[in-house]
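Form P-L/3: holo structure prediction, ligand flavin-adenine dinucleotide.
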Amino acid sequence: MSITRRGLLGAGAATAALLSAPTIMKAATKKVVVIGGGAAGATLTRYLAKDSKGALDITLVEANKNYTTCFFSNWYLGGYRDMQQITHNYDKVAAMGVNVVNNVATGVDGAKKEVTLADGAKLSYDKLVIAPGIDFHYDQIDGYDAAIAETDIPHAYKAGAQTALLKKQMEAMDDGGVFLMMAPPNPYRCPPGPYERASMVANYLQRNKPKSKVVILDPKDKHSKQALFQEAWETHYPGMVEWLPGAEVGAMKAVRNGEIITEKGSFKGAVLNPIPAQKAGKIAFVAGITNESGWCPIKDATNFESALVPDIHVIGDASINGAMPKSGFSANSQAKAVAMALNAELTGARQFDPRFRNTCWSLVADKDSVKVGANYKAEGNAVVKTDGFISSTGEDTMVREQTYEEAEGWYAGITADMFG
Ligand SMILES: Cc1cc2nc3c(=O)[nH]c(=O)nc-3n(C[C@H](O)[C@H](O)[C@H](O)COP(=O)(O)OP(=O)(O)OC[C@H]3O[C@@H](n4cnc5c(N)ncnc54)[C@H](O)[C@@H]3O)c2cc1C
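OUTPUT (holo model):
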C-alpha cells in the first residue's frame, strides 16, 4: 500500500490514533533447531521447510560441509561407486530456506531451551531435534581410539576419509593376505553392513588378489541375512570368506599391530578392520537424553520426543524406538513422520498416523543383491512391525539382478529426498 501526503492525517491526530489502536502483536516465528545433518537430520529439515511453507525458523547445525553416505560405502570398497558419487552437500537444503550452520553443537540446556556451538554462539529453540548418529565404545578396546581409527586402523563405520584409508590398505595388501574384520555387538548401525562389506572386499580380492582371505570375527552367534550371505560367499567366493561366531570369538578386547585380540583368542591379519561397539552420538549424552543403554529412549513414537527431556526429539541411529533397525532408510522414514508431527504442533497443520518403512539391500556380488525389510506403525512409545519380507536363498539370477536395480534406484531416490 502506498500512502500519499494527502492521505496522511495531521501528525497529532495520527499519534492519537496510534495510541488508541489495539496493539497487534505478530506471533513470534517458532524456532526449530536440528543437530546433525545426516540421513535423519537432513531429511527432517527439508520436509519441515516444505510442509511449514516458511512459517517456521529452521536451523540445521552440521559439523561437516559434506556428507558421505555410509550406505553404498561398501560399494565403494568393491569398486562399484567412487567417493564423489556417495558424497553430498547442503546447498539444496539451504535453498529451501533452512539456515545451515557449519559448526559443532557442544552444549544443550533443555531448561533454557538453548544450544551452544563450539564457537560459543547460542541458538534458542522451541523444539530441538537431535540426530547425531553414533559414537563408539573405544574405552572397551585396549590400544584403539578415535585417532588410531582415523590414521592407522580404520573402522570405516562413519564413511569418508576412513573408508578411503581402508580401501587403500586393502589395495596395498599382498596377495595371500588376510583382511581381518571384527563385527560389532548388537545393537549397531546397519545390521547387514559388516557382511555386505565382507562380500565387497572378497569381490575385490577375487579379481585382484585371489589367494587372499576375508576373516570375520563376530561377537554374535548369528547375524542379519545370515543364510543369504553364507550362500553368496560359498557360491561366489568359495573358500575365501570365513565367519567365526561369538562362541569362538567373544568380545573384542584389544587391537595391536596386525592383531585383534578377543576374549577367546588372538587373530592376525594383514589389514585390520575392527568395528567397535556403538552408542548414541556424543551430543545426546551432553543433552541428557541417553539412558543406561547408551541410546536415547522416546516417549511417543508419533513424534519421537525424548522420554527424558521435553521438547527434544531424537531420530535416526541415536534413538531406541522399538522394532526399527538403525539404517539410513529408517532414519529417513522417522524424519518424515517427525517433521509432520512438529509442523502440526507448531503451526496447527494436520497430523496423520505415521507409517514407517525400512529396506536394507546388500550387494553380495556383481549385479547380485539381497534385501530384508518391513513396515511399521507407532504404538505408544514404540515403533512396531506390521509385516516384513526377505530375499530367499536359491533365487533366480534375474530376481537378484532386479533387486540390485531396485537398490540403485533407492540410493538415487533417497539421497535426493535427504539432500535435494
Ligand atoms: C558400512 C555401512 C553400510 C550401510 N549401508 C546402509 C544401507 O545400505 N542402507 C541403509 O538404509 N543404511 C545403511 N547404513 C546405515 C546408515 O548409514 C545409518 O543408519 C544412517 O546414516 C543413520 O542416520 P543418522 O542421521 O542417524 O546418522 P548420520 O547419518 O551418521 O548423521 C549424523 C550427522 O550428525 C552430525 N553430528 C553429530 N554430532 C554433531 C554435533 N554435535 N554437532 C553438529 N553435527 C553433528 C554428523 O556430522 C553427521 O553428519 C550403513 C552403514 C554403514 C556403516
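COMMENT: Residues 30-133+281-350 form a domain with the FAD/NAD(P)-binding domain fold (CATH 3.50.50.60).
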